[in-house]
Amino acid sequence: MKRILTIQDISCVGKCSLTVALPIISAVGVETSIIPTAVLSTHTMFKGFTCKDLDDQILPIARHWKEEGLTFDAFYTGYLANAAQVDKVISVIEDLKQDGNYVIIDPAMADNGRLYPAFDSDFPKEMAKLCAMADIVLPNITEACLLTDTPYRGEYDEAFAKKVMSDLAALGAKKVVLTGAACGSDYGVMMYDSITNEYTYYMQERIDAVFHGTGDIFSSSFTGALMREKSMEESVKIAADFTAECIRITKEAPDARWYGVDFETALPYLISRLNA
Ligand code: PXL
Fold first, then answer.
1. Whose C-alpha lies nearest to ligand 1, atom 8?
2. What domains lie within the chain, and their CATH numbers?
3. What is the pLDDT of residues 164-175, one digit of tens each?
4. Which atom of ligand 1 lies nearest, measured to the CA of 216?
5. CA of residue 127 to ligand 1 center, whole Å
6. What is the per-residue pLDDT across 26-72, written as a single tens digit (0 to 9) for each?
């Protein structure tokens, strides 16, 4: 069985980060080891959330694993609690990584043109250091703009998206997967491969609903699909379709919660796509 390490927070209520990554990646048959970056009462879209960072645990946890000879097939990082955690996470990956491992970085820090409440304007510069070591980086357009020092645009065209993706790759990431890309009337995922210099797109029908945590749903199912030996392109399609299915189900659920999607109901769909 493949084993991955995912490094992100535990929001105890909120259906994001580890409470999404653990069930999704485990459900697709991949062992999911974790380093929690922080424990929060809820994600930061709630008012009054509590947060205890686990800064002093990140390196000791990894050191113990190194002594145990533990190895991983992929590293997948998400929300970090503060800028100082970036160097620690880089060091964990450098210490544990072996040839052929994937490094997947979701720079979960912003959306809709704004940084999440816990971060100040210096944070993206630090996060860019982590993105530089990625095989695959998975930003939304806000994050891609912040990482490349590009003024954010709510509306943009294909040329703008392509430029931001190639600028991001120039920082060091091999492949860029831009999620929630809304170019004109098209909506979906855009990919840039800096090795082949190719752009590919997977466009979907736009669903008129917005829920929190969908970026984490995408990144987790994408990581799971890659670990199930799907190609990069196929993994993007499966993750995008699964995320859309989660949104569709949540939109129709009479008891839907505002803070996250009903990914639980959609898990059989994901598993059937991976077994097809
Ligand atoms: O889904 C991204 C995310 C992860 N973790 C925490 C968050 C958010 C988005 O708001 O607040 C704590």
1. 43
2. 3-270 (3.40.1190.20)
3. 999 999 999 999
4. 1
5. 15
6. 999 999 999 999 999 999 999 999 999 999 999 999 999 999 999 99
Contacts of 188 (CB under 8 A, 6+ apart): 181, 201, 202, 203, 204, 240
Residues whose beta carbon lies within 6 Å of some atom of ligand 1: 9, 11, 16-17, 40, 43-45, 79, 108, 116, 213, 215-216
The tokens describing 269, both together, are 């769909």
**Residues 239-266 pLDDT 10s:** 999 999 999 999 999 999 999 999 999 9
Entry pTM: 0.97
Instruction: For 53-80, give one letter per residue: b (16+ CB within 10 A) or e.
Output: bbeeebbebbeebeeeeeebbbbbbbbb
Fill in the DSSP letter of residue 156.
B
Type of residue numbered 137: V
Of 7, 8, 9, 18, the one to substitute when testing ligand 1's pocket (max ligand atoms within 8 A of C-beta) is 9
Collect all residues with Cβ–Cβ distance below 8 Å to 49 and sequence separation of at least 6: 11, 40, 41, 42, 43
Please provide the size of the chain in residues. Answer: 276
Instruction: Quote the pLDDT of residue 246.
Output: 97
d(CA 125, CA 115): 12
